[in-house]
Write a structure and sequence with these properties.
The chain has about 425 residues and is of the alpha+beta class. About 35% of the residues lie in helices and about 20% in strands. The protein has ten helices and 13 strands. The strands form two sheets. Strands 1, 2, 3, 4, 5, 6 and 7 form a seven-stranded antiparallel sheet that branches. Strand 8 and strand 9 form a beta hairpin.
Length: about 425
């Protein structure tokens, strides 16, 4: 049976199935793996063959990497299918052709076999733990920014295809985690266009690692699939469009969310939100210094948001918010240092500590910086940093204890180095 695959039904791409495949078909943006043999319809001359080269050909479907006839033809195929595609010049190489093997205005015949296809790797680590397939293309070029209001539908499926959750509501982009959704969904939605519908497969470690309060039927420690339909969205104001009051109000909400994640040990997700806070407020301080006052909390505790929101007199202008902005920035940088320390990202720990210390000494920033040096096994710098903690806060028993540990480690390293040299000299003498 011959089928016209062109939307206009103009005979530009005619498909004939030679061997039936099975399952679903690839979607726009999928990477497909095929074998093909191309011949000229006019004389049957072969001009190209992946089979002759012995390597399957891979390309991304529907994004213009191949001729139009292929984008249409392969999109209609199933895994294991073998078919013949006859493509007229407008769906092949046009009037110019592709010299020297393909003359101008040539009609081409391809025998194509589809072996496999898979979505786009949208995982942060690029390890294929989050794979996306576009089911319906969106319109325009805009994507939701942080704080955008979105009309979205999300369905969740187990690895066996059973639905375990369905969400249809107006969401604020950036609040997906507070709704109990995996962080992968927020990242994917942030790159979707209005009207786009996609399917993402999420590996167990990025899905539900414990019982979900929001979605009790969600499988724990299993791979899951989500279908996301971003029906429409309205972008939030960009930070340069916001007043100082609007920035502070947004930062308060984000701070509460990030602090809760930090308490629950979700250091990566917490760090991302604190980074957004710093980005939002960093140019709003009018060069005022951070407050260096301490609240008596231990180093393991998070910088907690105030129990009550401040309600400045709006008639007094933006300057009323400067003090709160400075305090939020100080706390956010301290928490960024703590999250980074927990994630063994010691360079960033030191960076965030310095962001606080540039405005004046701070016990927690000094201590976390010292801890980063210690864990990097730079015991000389760690000792200097712990000494700064003690100079600033003599009663800090943890710093005093770690100072002694630095001496022990340096002595141990010196002894090990001595033994290495003795062994080396013995080897030279033999």
């Amino acid at each position: 049976i011959m089928t016209d695959l062109t939307p206009e039904q103009n005979g530009g791409v005619i498909k004939t199935i030679i061997k039936q495949g099975s399952g679903d078909s690839p979607a726009t943006g999928d990477t497909v793996s095929v074998h093909y043999v191309g011949t000229l319809v006019e004389n049957g001359e072969k001009f190209d063959s992946s089979r002759d080269r012995g390597n399957k050909f891979e390309f991304k479907l529907g994004v213009g990497q191949v001729i139009k006839g292929w984008d249409l033809g392969v999109a209609s195929m199933q895994r294991g299918e073998l078919c013949e595609l006859v493509c007229t010049a407008p769906y092949a190489y046009g009037d110019a052709g592709s010299p020297p093997k393909i003359p101008g205005a040539a009609t081409l015949k391809f025998e194509v076999e589809l072996f496999d296809f898979f979505g786009e790797d949208v995982s942060e680590e690029k390890d294929k733990n989050v794979m996306k397939r576009t089911l319906t293309k969106g319109s325009g070029y805009k994507t939701p920014n942080d704080g955008a209001t979105m009309d979205v539908e999300i369905e969740g499926f187990t690895s066996t295809g059973e639905i375990f959750m369905e969400l249809k509501e107006i969401l604020t982009h950036g609040d997906e985690k507070t709704k109990g959704l995996p962080s992968a969904i927020e990242r994917v939605i942030g790159n979707m266009k209005s009207g786009e519908k996609c399917e993402i497969t999420v590996a167990a470690k990025h899905a539900f690692t414990k019982k979900s309060e929001h979605f009790p039927a969600a499988p724990v420690n299993e791979n899951v699939k989500f279908v996301i339909n971003l029906k429409s969205f309205e972008k939030a104001k960009e930070k340069w469009e916001m007043t100082k009051q609007e920035k502070v109000e947004s930062a308060r909400l984000k701070r509460a969310e990030a602090t809760e994640l930090l308490k629950n040990g979700e250091y990566g997700n917490s760090r991302k939100i604190f980074e957004k806070i710093v980005s939002l407020l960093d140019s709003s301080t009018d060069n005022e210094e951070f407050s260096s006052s301490e609240d008596g909390m231990s180093d393991e505790e998070a910088e907690k948001p105030p129990t009550e929101d401040k309600k400045p007199d709006e008639t007094e202008g933006d300057n009323k918010f400067n003090e709160e902005i400075v305090e939020i920035l100080r706390a956010s940088n301290l928490n960024l240092a703590l999250c980074s320390l927990k994630l063994n990202d010691f360079d960033k720990t030191i960076y965030y500590c310095n962001s606080v210390l540039n405005k004046g000494d701070n016990e927690k920033a000094l201590y976390r910086k010292a801890e980063a040096y210690f864990k990097m096994r730079d015991f000389h710098l760690a000792k200097e940093a712990y000494q700064r903690v003690i100079d600033f806060a003599p009663d800090n028993t943890s710093a005093n204890k770690q100072l002694n540990e630095c001496d022990k480690k340096m002595s141990q390293e010196k002894q090990e180095e001595k033994q290495r040299y003795q062994k080396m000299f013995r080897n030279f003498s033999t």
